Amino acid sequence: MALRVYNTLTGAKEEFVPLEPGKVTMYVCGVTVYDHCHIGHARANVVFDMIYRYLRRSGLEVTYVRNYTDVDDKIINRANKEGVPFTVISERFIAEFDKDMAALGLELPTHQPKATEHIVEMIEVIERLIAKGHAYAADGDVYFCVEKFAPYLKLSKRNLEEMQAGARIEVGEKKRHPMDFALWKGSKPGEPYWESPWGAGRPGWHIECSAMSMKYLGETFDIHGGGKDLIFPHHENEIAQSEAANGKPFARYWIHNGFVNINAEKMSKSLGNFFTIKEVLEKYDAEVLRFFLLSAHYRSPIDFSDQNLKEAEAGLERIYKTLGGIDALLEGVPSAAQTPSLADTERELAEKVEQLPSRFREAMDDDFNTAQALGYVFDLVRSANKALAEGAPSGAEARKALTAARRGVSEIGTVLGIFSSSPEGFAERLKGRKSTGLTITEEEIERLIEERTAARAARDYQRSDEIRDQLLAHSIVLLDSPQGTTWNVK
């Protein structure tokens, strides 16, 4: 099965055929760096990191560009409020963005251009648009003329006449049509500016992505991505100015991730349900957040809530426990070439292991369906747990099945950016987070476990049960195994 992606431009799934065989060019709109990133930013960036990883894992050479918008009204307003140059604000939040993305396990794009470093390229595109009659200068500003670009709104499928009826020209704007958008803004007091043929000023928001994508990827490239909120006006305007300037298609496949809802309501600062990545990572492990974001199809809305994060945490913990059980068992399984017949559960596991690579690729080739792919991982985990629950599988075939199961999950984790920790390391991280606020110290827990172990050795089962209940009252759950007793937080 060839890779098929949903193209917002055509409204259908299409076979993905790169412009140049074996190579992929991809541009994803980055953040405006004026504040800390929220979980909507986390979703978009995790989604396109997953796509980047999968395309490369499929043997393609990917040039991935993700920009920083480092000059904007919001950046300027914050800088003026703090009494610092706008670059202080932009550099501060570029650094914060990079920290957040590193915590979420994102791989670095091929290029991470800043808008302010590409003013010359933006001016060149604007000059070309004016020369072709698609833009006009007006007292230091430059606007794109939407009526001169017949396919305008082909991405968002809107109607220009209907939109015009509800639009108006703001005070101070010099537009000919209410839907015309700024390519260049004349400078105002207290704002940063650059010299241009139209006077001192700064670029509009949309022109930066056209100029930077053209520089690094060419006038036509394969994939343009971002959140659904960018379809209009940002991506619509990118298409208009780019295709009007170049006379050729801009991006061939438009991929947009769905929204994040908070407790079934749209995330909004006005509703007070707005969470930054840093706030979420204070409560949950970064791998749990990434796992949660990939547990739904990227185009679907995803409901962010404590309950759903806890369920994601429990699911990821279950997978890690299974991997830990396999690791422990393999250490004790002899590697000698024994050939007893496989038990039914072991045979089932061997079949699931054999099917996993093709099932994973089938899911991912169906428009990057990570939800289905993770479903196949859980299917394998259930079979592995059944085999582990029946005792210690022995023999070369059993060892082969367990080893392949472990390797298969790890390989999928490499593509999705999860399962990269050791089971012990993940358990310790999780325990450390859950231990915060406990009413008993770790030293006291360990002392009681030692006392319980001694009581069990002396067959004093009443005292052993008393200690288990005492710890449970403090939300401590004991886990007994042949290797000893460990504990976790309920």
From TrEMBL:
User: Which residue intervals define the domain Cysteinyl-tRNA synthetase class Ia DALR in the entry?
Assistant: 359-427
**EC annotation from Swiss-Prot or TrEMBL:** 6.1.1.16
The GO annotation for biological process reads: cysteinyl-tRNA aminoacylation
The record's catalysed reaction(s) read: tRNA(Cys) + L-cysteine + ATP = L-cysteinyl-tRNA(Cys) + AMP + diphosphate
Binding residue positions for ATP: 269
Locus of motif 'KMSKS' region: 266-270
Spell out the subcellular localization from the entry: Cytoplasm
Q: Which InterPro entries match?
A: Cys-tRNA-ligase (IPR015803), Cys-tRNA-synt_Ia_DALR (IPR015273), Cys-tRNA/MSH_ligase (IPR024909), Rossmann-like_a/b/a_fold (IPR014729), tRNA-synt_1_cat_dom (IPR032678), tRNAsynth_Ia_anticodon-bd (IPR009080)
Give UniProt keywords alphabetically.
Aminoacyl-tRNA synthetase, ATP-binding, Cytoplasm, Ligase, Metal-binding, Nucleotide-binding, Protein biosynthesis, Zinc
Cofactors that this protein relies on: Zn(2+)
Per the entry, the cofactor note is: Binds 1 zinc ion per subunit.
Q: What is known about its subunit structure?
A: Monomer.
Family, as annotated = Belongs to the class-I aminoacyl-tRNA synthetase family.
Protein name as annotated: Cysteine--tRNA ligase
Origin species, per record, is: Geobacter pickeringii
Gene field: cysS
